[in-house]
Amino acid sequence: MKKLIGALMLTVGALALSTAANAQDKLKACWVYVGPVGDFGYSYQHDQGRLQVEKELGDKVETAFLENVQEGPDAERAFERLAREGCKMIFGTSFGFMDPELKVAAKFPDVKFEHATGFKMAPNLGIYNARFYEGRYILGQIAAKQSKAGLAGYIVSFPIPEVVMGINSFMLGAQSINPDFKVKIVWVNTWFDPAKEADAAKALFDQGADIIVQHTDSTGPLQVAQERGLHGFGQGSDMAKFAPKSQYTAIVDDWGPYYVSRVKAALDGTWKPEDRWEGLKEGAVVMAPYANLPEDVVKMAQDTEAKIKGGWNPFTGPIAKQDGSEFLAAGAVADDKTLLGMNFYVKGVDDKLPQ
Amino acid sequence: MDITVNILLTIATAATPLLIAAIGELVVERSGVLNLGVEGMMIMGAVCGFGAAYLTGSPWIGVLAAIVAGALFSLLFAFMALTLATNQVATGLSLTILGLGLSGMIGTNFVGLPGVRLPNLYIPGLSDLPIVGKLLFGQDPLFYASIALVFAVSWFLFRTRKGLMLRSIGDSHSSAHALGIPVIRYRYLAVMFGGACAGLAGGHLSLVYTPQWVENMTAGRGWIALALVVFASWRPLRVLAGAYIFGAVWIGQLHAQAFGIPVPSQFLSALPYLATIVVLVLISRNKRLTMMNTPASLGQAFVPDR
Known about the structure:
The structure holds two protein chains of two kinds.
Chain A: H1 2-25, E1 27-32, H2 42-57, E2 61-66, H3 73-84, E3 89-92, H4 98-107, E4 112-116, E5 125-130, H5 132-146, E6 151-156, H6 161-177, E7 182-187, H7 194-206, E8 211-215, H8 220-228, E9 231-236, E10 247-253, H9 256-268, E11 275-278, E12 285-287, H10 295-309, E13 319-320, E14 326-328, H11 336-340
Parallel strand pairs in A: 1-2, 1-3, 3-4, 4-5, 5-11, 6-7, 6-8, 8-9, 9-10
Antiparallel strand pairs in A: 10-12, 13-14
Chain B: H1 2-30, H2 38-56, H3 59-83, H4 88-106, H5 132-137, H6 141-159, H7 161-171, H8 173-178, H9 183-209, H10 221-231, H11 236-259, H12 265-285, H13 287-293
Helix pairs in contact in B: 1-6, 1-9, 1-10, 1-11, 2-3, 2-4, 2-9, 2-10, 3-4, 3-9, 6-7, 6-11, 10-11, 10-12, 11-12
Subcellular location (chain B): Cell membrane
Protein name (chain B): ABC transporter permease
Pfam families (chain B): BPD_transp_2 (PF02653)
């Protein structure tokens, strides 16, 4: 009996060694998603990035992912499991993974960690995000040009800085075309509920809006726009298929180039934790093809896109806060820290920010 | 006037899947079985309905597939909870979890595809009437089906012999068994009816409400349907009222926000559940009322030889 156990243990040991050897040949990169990869929105786009890594780096890498991971303490187990399973690089893709990922990173100093949309770093933990607000400025300009009512409906999830920043950027864009442009805002308290988002779109259309903007992840609102012969913008991915006659453009998250560059850096040994916040210029945010728009509006959108790519920031003063007090003096540019903590509206937003 | 009609139409669309799922579960619970798998059966209906409609191009085949998927999936629960007499709460919960996972797997290839929408009813002349035209003659077919279902179930439960037997099984399965009523067979049929309804409700989501497939698209509506049954204290017409009240609160808060009336939307999202708790407290205060409507053997496993 003892012999048998000894033999077994030897085999197990040998197996462990051989996987370790394999792991050294290939870099194992792993992802943790907050939603299902089939959401056709946020997590889906991250997974497209993972697939691009597989495609471009081929047999140099091996990838794995965990989906539907709850934010909070449960996430800690997910990260720890991946680290134990031999992942040498782990991307946590949601804001709520911040503290669990930080804890696990401290336990596994030789694993490289990256966290999206957070603000805490460590010697082996870098952070990254995308400047979605740049795209929202363009949406605002298009909406102001196209809306006959001068009123857009805006469906939002939760009052976090990311979302508030988006609303403000949208309004600044719209006001640059039509200073009296109005927006009606509806909070649906979810990132993802197609039916509820569709209901919110119906409510906003019923109250006179003729363009819908969303900071939630499903295609529900655009389908309503299509049914009613009105228009809107896609979010996260290009949703034109769902509303070919209604989508003007979409803000597409393209994480692929970023992931490829980071995994490459890890392979070369040049990886170090960084704070990367990329936008239109770097290709992390992409505008879906402009459609259903007159030529001059497309031209305007493209010009603004070029201007932003050239380094111009939509949050350039003079900008007043909702109550009329000064936010940015003429020519001043908001720094990243202010943007990432944004908890107030700019002038002209007719809504009270939920606390 | 247009806006009122539109609001009413939106409420009807929001209430329909809740109503269909709840009326099915009501029959299940009236037979003394508690199936917490509504959410799971619903999502299976949604994915199979979408898939069938997409592959064949016919939304009606989608509706049929949704019904069949829900019923078949509920058979799994029936086999475990009725034949093997497992714990109904645990079995129902696992059915929900399984359904959410399995539907995601089945639906992998349907993600990101625009669906086929079940067309609204259109009767030339009638549907064009102002106000009532759209409300009465221009809605989606499943809206009419849901209303018909409520009255059919109400009639079946309280006006037919078989309905009486079903209710008697729910009140005391041992006595019903002693009277020679085939308890297990009735319960199997009730569970399958509930499954078919939940599947249809899911089909409404993926074929009418938002014609698309995405994981977790039922987003907790199965649980609201379960709450509705209790809210309605197991009475079909109250389920009808409840579904429309829940729908109205839901849509009303979106409109209130758009109007700029500051309502705490988190509170309103929780309202269906709060309302259910209030109703539970109220009916449990009145012993006689509780006795009258609550199926007495709800959730208890039945083993004939005991």
